[in-house]
Amino acid sequence: MTINGKTFCMMIMSAANSLDNSKDVINNMNVFPVPDGDTGINMTLTMRTMKNIDGSESLSDCAKKAADIALRSARGNSGAILSLFFRGMSKAFKGLCEADSKDIATAFSKGYSEAYKAVMNPTRGTILTVMQNCAEKAVEFTKDGGYAGDVEGLFRALVEVSEIALAKTPEQLPKLKEANVVDAGGYGFVTILKGMLAVLENDPIFLINQADGESGEADFTSFNTEDITFSYCTEAVVQKSSEFVGENTAAVLHDFICGIGDSVVFVDDEEIIKLHVHTDHPGSVMEKALEFGSLITVKVENMREQHSALVVEKEKPSKRKIEKKYGFVSVCLGNGIAAAFRDIGVDSVVHGGQTMNPSTQDIIDAVNATPAKYVFVLPNNKNIYMVAEQASKIIKDKKVIVVPSTSVPEGISAMIAFNPDGEPDENLTNMESAIKGVTTISVTNAVRSTTVEGEKISDGQTLGLVNGKIESIANGELACLRGLLDRLSDASFIMVFCGQGVSEEDMGTVEQMIREAAPMSDVSVIMGEQPLYPYIISVE
């Protein structure tokens, strides 16, 4: 038995469906109780686009097209790693009309190699570990003619290997064991292998509780934007939380957006909400939508000011001619934060961040819209860095330099350190140095009860993080922030970005708290309008 292009396409479709059906389970496998439950969504959105390949071509052509699509649509670290695995497989299948067991073993090995080398600091107990076990065992199993003519048997054996490897991840990564979960990305990879095996067993996986033809992207290309009285064309796709699953369960959201804008299009499907509205308050739309589930895709366009850097269109924009030496792309959430980046020289802002990771194509489009020979990309989130790196490798007509910023404060410090008269390498060194000199403090809320490093945390409690590590736990945002004030006493410069829902009164209270704790510091308090994080603080 061998697999050809048609079989491979069927395996991809079954795997994508299997992943789609399990995305909520995967999302809930979060180690930290901060709102980044997006592994299932990121892997699903990456895999879902691969379902459109044509199975009438050779295995080589089908695998390459699937890999190319996945590479451009990859979201988050898990999606990027997954896309690179299929990219490696496509390289192994190059020139083949069909593949036997040994070819498949080679493809697994190449897939793991491509994914592994793209990760800066690989950690045991993750999706990479599960991939590695499968790749090594595939080569071992097919050595000396093993599983010859039995592709189904090989896949069945690899599924078993992957399940064993997944079960061991909590022992390899203590944070998983502490939270009593296995690795979410690894679980997703096992789910994909099971979906592929199902085709070989003549029992392919189909989507559950989703409308036929569901793509996960809203199609609003026919909307007429003439005679618009509101500034922002706002679109979003929401993955419903469990309590809102079912058709027509989000009437409250529909009524809300009808009350703050016009040109409303609203689809209240079984698991997905698609909305479109012209409004002056896009942040309010997103905040209200979050009450019904998690945001999968977001697009906000200022229809009166097309140069607005808050938007990177989903439709591929035309490339702008090079007009200057240096340009900048920043990834962030919140109108105020985006404005801060524009004020210090950023050309294009990609709307994204925690739980709303942009795709590779989103970043490519932003770079193409930046008219510069050298374009610095500021991911400002560790889960977006790999996607930015992939985008930099795809773009050939300009030099893309990814700055290793993992937070908004790091991104801003890097921009301030930039010297327009310096050379690219010199500037990257200076920006990296600036990043090391800034401390990021953020305040958010736990979305589930768990234990982290011996500390019990309850759903709804407020968490204070210093450079991503939990340092304060309290019942309330201001109380949590008070537990972090000792971190500010020696600071020279402090900038506070206040998120959606923070009142002017609370802004004043926070500013007074910080000035009392750091009387010698230069303090700025800005309305950042970011979701999920009431306060993001830059300390230098």
How would you state the average pLDDT, rounded? 85
Structural category is alpha+beta
Low-confidence stretches: 32-36, 210-228, 304-317
> What oligomerization state is this entry in?
single chain
Strand order of the largest sheet: 15-14-11-18-16-17
| Count of strand segments | 18
Largest sheet, in brief, is: 6 strands, mixed
| Share in helix | 40-55%
Q: Kindly, what is the distance between the CA atoms of the first and last residues, rounded to a whole number of angstroms?
A: 62 Å
Characterize the structure shown.
This protein has 540 residues and is of the alpha+beta class. Helix 13 (335-343) links the parallel strand 7 and strand 8 (348-351). The longest helix is centred in the first third of the chain and has 23 residues, at 5-27. The chain contains 19 helices and 18 strands. It is globular and about 75 Å long. A six-stranded mixed sheet has the order 15-14-11-18-16-17, sandwiched between helices. The chain has helices at residues 5-27, 39-48, 59-73, 76-92, 101-118, 127-142, 151-167, 169-172, 174-179, 184-200, 251-259, 282-289, 335-343, 360-368, 385-394, 408-416, 424-436, 477-482, 504-517; strands spanning 3-4, 98-99, 232-240, 261-268, 272-279, 293-302, 324-332, 348-351, 372-378, 399-402, 439-445, 450-452, 455-457, 462-466, 469-474, 493-498, 522-527, 535-539.
